[in-house]
Amino acid sequence: MRRSVRGHPTFRLLLALMAMTAVARTGAAQWPPKMANLEVLPKDITVDSLVSVMGGFTRALGVRCSFCHVGEEERPLATYDFAADDKVTKRKARAMLRMVQRINDVDLAALEGRSDPPLRVQCVTCHHGQRRPLLLQDVLLQALRDGGVDSVASAYQGLRTRYYGRFVYDFSEVPLADVAEVLVARDSLAAARRLDELNVQSNPGSAFARRQLGIVALLEAFLAGPARGDTVYQALTIRFGAPPVEDVLNEAGWELMRRGRPADALAAFRMNATAYPGSSNVYHSLGEAYVALGDVANAIRSYAKAVEIDPTNTDAADKLRKLREKGAPGSPGDDLPAPQRPSRSRR
Ligand code: HEC
Ligand code: HEC
User: Fold this and answer.
1) For 276-292, what is each residue's pLDDT tens digit?
2) Span from the CA of 54 to the centroid of ligand 2 (angstroms)
3) Separation of CA 2 and ligand 1 centre (Å)
4) Which candidate, 333, 329, 337, 233, places its Cα nearest to that of 285?
């Protein structure tokens, strides 16, 4: 063996691996003449295949050989004990290999109407450059648990600086918005708004990011009263060059309804009806708030307006019919908001 080491395939494997990992230059003589401990990969695997499988592992997980193998990163590969199973990560990787084989050869193979050529699951399919295949949302929620919203913001910026443009994390407008929604559900509105602000800054072209920021900012503002709601609405209109889309104030209003604040919701829906007088949906929401407040006459007027604008709004039509059947009590003054601005199309 030792005599023919230069011609031996494992010697070429070593050269290839050294080139690939740019680590060591010496110690070829210590390289094992054949693979001693393959349990999943075929024992007669060619050197080229093994090189590409191992290279695939390191890239898929964003790690070096020493993540799984006994050896020190800065030392020659020939000093590694690749056959040893001491590291739990190697044992887990072997279990992963078995899992991936099963997915491809059993589960996907049995799939009806398989694509041609068939797609195969690989390590990178799940791991996308990480040891543990986490979504950005997972990482940010962990930062939230560890250190609150400040940690989320700094973790996000740090990861973005390091990984932007790589297939590791999703830096679109979705992950920060998801974490902000978790905060809204916990009533941490100021913290949610901070993340939605960061989202708008990081994704200036995103209408979705602006929408999410608008909802939270308005919810927070209306909880402090209609006057504050109006101020923030005007501020958003100036900042983004147009009133928030209809959906924004509507969502904020529904969040207020869910929080048992129908009077504040009513103020939000009325403001929306003023900005979007041509929207059936806005009057529909207005009707719901009047119902919650026990103002049947104005509820009827609102639903009637919703149906007038859009006769296919069957939910509003049903509610209108039921209220009319019950018979509206005496008729207090018409309290529907007057349109002040022309309706704007959705952005
Ligand atoms: C994510 C874990 C992981 C990484 C990273 C990894 N390997 Fe492996 N390696 C394994 C597993 C698991 C096996 C055994 C596969 C089996 O049992 O069929 C193995 C087997 C080997 C073997 C065969 C050992 C023997 O004698 O049986 C060699 C050589 C090897 N790896 C080299 C490397 C090199 C070089 C790198 C870095 C470029 C590397 N590996 C990176 C998990 C890994
Ligand atoms: C179907 C998705 C999926 C595929 C494909 C996949 N993995 Fe994993 N892997 C996971 C998940 C999920 C975990 C985390 C399990 C846990 O700890 O909860 C994980 C964990 C691991 C770990 C442990 C990491 C650590 O820090 O403890 C290693 C090593 C690993 N995978 C290697 C691989 C290798 C090598 C392949 C390709 C042969 C592979 N995985 C393919 C989903 C996958």
Assistant:
1) 999 999 999 999 999 99
2) 14
3) 23
4) 337
The token duo for 253 is 């209003």
Query: Does the pLDDT of residue 103 top 50, yes or no?
Result: yes
Say how far apart CA 222 and CA 253 lie, in whole Å.
9
Average pLDDT over residues 205-220: 97
Q: Which tokens in the block code for residue 315? A: 């939910």
Nearest atom of ligand 1 to the alpha carbon of 36: 26
Separation of 119 CA from ligand 1 center, angstroms?
24
Check if the beta carbon of residue 202 is closer than 8 Å to that of residue 160: yes
Backbone dihedral region of 295: left (phi > 0), alpha (psi from -120 to 50 degrees) or beta? beta
Residue 23: is its pLDDT beyond 50?
Answer: no
Measured in whole angstroms, how far is the alpha carbon of residue 297 from the centre of its chain?
43
Give the number of other CB atoms < 10 A from CB of residue 279.
Answer: 21
* pLDDT tens string 159-170: 999 999 999 999
d(CA 212, CA 197): 9
Q: Would you say residue 327 has pLDDT above 90?
A: no
CA–CA distance, 54 with 323 (Å, rounded to integer): 70
Ligand located closest to 45 CA = 1
State the distance from the centre of ligand 2 to the C-alpha of 92, rounded, in angstroms: 7
**Residue having the nearest C-alpha atom to atom 16 of ligand 2:** 132
The ligand 1 atom at the shortest distance from the C-alpha of residue 92 is 12
CA distance 195 to 175: 10
Q: Is the CB of 63 under 6 A from ligand 2?
A: no
Residue 293, ligand 2, Cβ within 6 A: no
In whole angstroms, give the CA distance from residue 89 to residue 97. 12
Of 44-48, 183-187, 276-280, the range with the lowest mean pLDDT is 44-48
CA gap 233, 258 in Å, rounded? 20
270: nearest Cα among 236, 316, 233: 233
